[in-house]
Write a structure and sequence with these properties.
Blueprint: H1 3-16, E1 21-24, H2 41-46, E2 54-58, E3 62-66, H3 73-78, E4 84-87, H4 96-103, E5 109-112, H5 119-131, E6 135-138, E7 158-159, H6 162-165, H7 169-183, E8 187-190, H8 193-200, E9 202-203, E10 215-220, E11 224-228, H9 235-243, E12 247-250, H10 254-258, E13 265-268, H11 274-280, E14 285-288, H12 292-298, H13 302-329, E15 335-336, H14 337-349, E16 354-357, E17 362-365, E18 383-384, E19 389-394, E20 396-398, E21 401-402, E22 405-410, H15 416-433, E23 436-438, H16 443-455, E24 466-468, E25 477-482, E26 496-499, E27 502-505, E28 509-512, E29 515-524, E30 529-535, H17 553-570, H18 576-585
Parallel strand pairs: 1-5, 3-4, 5-6, 8-13, 11-12, 13-14
Antiparallel strand pairs: 1-2, 2-3, 7-9, 8-10, 10-11, 15-18, 16-20, 17-19, 19-22, 20-21, 23-30, 24-25, 26-29, 27-28, 29-30
Helix pairs in contact: 13-14, 15-16
Domain Peptidase M24: 315-520
InterPro entries: Creatin/AminoP/Spt16_N, Creatinase/aminopeptidase-like, Creatinase_N, Pept_M24, Pept_M24B, Peptidase_M24_C, Peptidase_M24B_aminopep-P_CS, X-Pro_aminopeptidase_P
Protein name: Aminopeptidase P family protein
């Protein structure tokens, strides 16, 4: 079916149920960024594949809201669908709830699927709609429209051993119970998949590129229940749960179990799905607070930090071998963006304990590099020749950790304008890396450091500068971030983040440089405890697209010192022509 045909079927269901507007979020019952195939409702309905964005369908109009990462991709994927693109965060773009009110009549019913709607979204919707004499309904209308959904994954759930996790399940649950007691909670629901996986030292593959599995946890002060497809648990996982006093229950019984809870004070995060709140609100007290384990997960222990250091060497070796192959093959072999991404996967697959990609590789040639989350298709992706520039953003999942790296470089002649923009973006990466900052600093306080070189030219980029990264978990991990928006979470020692300023010129080129960085304690004195960043990623930058005259002495020294470290750590694992070429990249300015 075409998008128009799918929307028409949905409108028929809306009319049957007296619904004037229906909202489809990019969400599943666990509210993750990346979704299992059977819950990719918005993508199925609209054809828009971005990881962020939601669509509102009325009787005669349709609009999709998304952020700056997809302002170029959105119009391409929505072309001919009858769905308008609304650029979130841009002046003049209407708030979607205001738009719904303007497009519906007084007394209208507006519907969502409560399972795929966060409680915070539900409250915002319900409050504003009620104030404007509209009613919010929980109706999973797409169940009657998307009738050939993929079946849920039956991939195994396996143990993530202490060798890599560094902390036992028993200790993690005890720490969570300590936080529960401090909040006055007697029960706690954990629904986000990476928090479930981290808490129980288990991993799976129900979501592409994310080593997680569909499950819920219910923790009380005495018991801990895991609701999961019991057929998927490997023997080691089942034994670990038994050893850790975790009771196993079927995934399908979760909401029935919630309905039995009475007179409990239940800690639930506001980004949990609305159906959870509905199931417990009548006979219990709800404590709406962040998941305690979320922050614990973000602060990597010593074992996890060593794991990151280990996989960065492997990933760096794979990247150097790949880059050597690409530079020496382009113009001689028939290459396209998709085949290049497959080749990069093959180089990573040669490395010890490699499990798979940490996200779909972004290989953007020429102007496709300006599409921030570009995904080259197997059919029809751009041919790549020895001309212009290419942006490659990729990462790997290893048993010891997760990687995420972007390098932009020339495959042929690039303009002076490109080189200046590439230099400015690299200066932003360097300035953020060099930051020293006191305890209590939030990501928004540092974000300007990465943007300032571009700001001085009247330029900017429409995405965050840094996101948290999991330890053999999701490549996008909270709660910390470095971005313009004020995130109240303090940056703390042990957190791993990306550092990825960029610059994009639609129709011409895209530039992004990205390393992963670890927050470490620098010094403690009478003023405060101060932190600094340690760079984890190991891969050369291409100096032939950098204008040396634009760099300060401090920036030149940083590049030279970084390349010296890359040489020391990767050099022993390279040989022959690859090593000779690699050594030419890491020579000092």
């Amino acid at each position: 079916m075409t998008v128009k045909e799918k929307v028409a079927l949905l409108r028929t269901e809306m009319k049957k149920n007296s619904i004037e507007a229906f909202i489809v979020y990019s969400a599943d019952p666990h509210l993750g960024e990346y979704l299992p195939a059977e819950w990719q409702e918005r993508t199925w309905l609209t054809g828009f594949t971005g990881s962020a964005g939601f669509v509102v369908i009325t009787s005669d109009k349709a609009g999709l809201w998304t952020d700056g990462r997809y302002f170029t991709q959105g119009p391409r994927e929505l072309e001919g669908s009858g769905i308008d693109l609304f650029k979130d965060g841009i002046e003049g773009t209407p708030n979607y709830i205001d738009w719904i009110i303007s497009e519906t009549s007084e007394g209208a019913n507006v519907a969502v699927n409560g399972l795929a709607t966060s409680h915070s979204n539900w409250v915002d919707l319900d409050t504003k709609l009620t104030k404007n004499k509209r009613q919010l309904k929980d109706l999973p209308l797409l169940n009657n429209v998307w009738t050939d959904r993929p079946t849920p994954s039956q991939n195994p759930v396996f143990e993530h051993p202490m060798t890599y996790a560094g902390q036992s399940v028993t200790d993690k649950i005890a720490a969570i119970r300590g936080k529960m007691k401090a909040e006055g909670a007697t029960a706690h629901v954990i629904s986000s998949l990476d928090d479930v996986a981290w808490t129980l030292n288990l991993r799976g593959s129900d979501v592409e590129c994310n080593p997680v599995f569909l499950a819920y946890i219910l923790v009380s002060l005495e018991d801990c229940f895991l609701f999961v497809d019991l057929n998927k648990l490997e023997d080691d996982a089942e034994k670990l749960m038994q050893k850790s006093s975790v009771t196993l229950k079927s995934y399908d019984t979760f909401f029935d179990h919630l309905a039995t809870l009475k007179d409990q004070s239940i800690l639930i995060a506001s980004n949990s799905n609305q159906s959870i709140f509905e199931a417990v609100k009548t006979n219990n007290t709800i404590i709406e607070k962040p998941v305690p384990g979320n922050l614990m997960k973000a602060i990597k222990n010593e074992t996890e930090q060593k794991g990151f250091e280990t996989v960065m060497v492997r990933d760096g070796v794979a990247m150097v071998k790949f880059l050597h192959w690409l530079i020496h093959s382009v113009g001689k072999e028939d290459l396209d963006e998709y085949s290049i991404g497959k080749k990069l996967y093959a180089f990573r697959a040669e490395q010890k304990n490699f499990i798979g990609n940490s996200f779909g590789s972004i290989v953007g040639y020429k102007d496709n590099g300006a599409i921030m989350h570009y995904s080259a298709k197997s059919e029809g992706s751009a041919k790549v020749t020895n001309d212009s520039s290419i942006l490659i953003d990729s990462g790997g999942q290893y048993l010891e950790g997760t990687t995420d790296i972007t390098r932009t470089f020339a495959l042929g002649t690039v303009s002076d304008e490109f080189k200046k923009d590439a230099t400015k973006a690299l200066q932003g990466l360097i300035q953020l890396t060099l930051a020293k900052f006191p305890k209590g600093t939030r990501g928004a306080h540092l974000d300007a450091l990465a943007r300032m070189p571009l700001w001085k030219e009247g330029k900017d980029f429409n995405h965050g500068t840094g996101h948290g990264v999991g330890s053999f978990l999701n490549v996008h991990e909270g709660p910390q971030s470095i971005r313009k928006d004020l995130n109240p979470v303090e940056l703390r020692a042990g957190m791993v983040l990306s550092n990825e300023p960029g610059y994009y010129v639609e129709g011409k080129y895209g530039i992004r440089h990205e390393n992963l960085i670890l927050i470490k304690t620098w010094k403690t004195n009478e003023w405060n405890t101060f932190y600094e960043f340690e760079t984890l990623t190991l891969c050369p930058f291409f100096k032939n697209i950098i204008v040396e005259e634009m760099l300060s002495q401090e920036e030149i020294e940083w590049i030279n010192n970084y390349h010296r470290m890359v040489s020391e750590k990767l050099g022993p694992h390279l040989d022959g022509e690859v090593k000779t070429w690699f050594e030419s990249l890491v020579t000092p300015f």
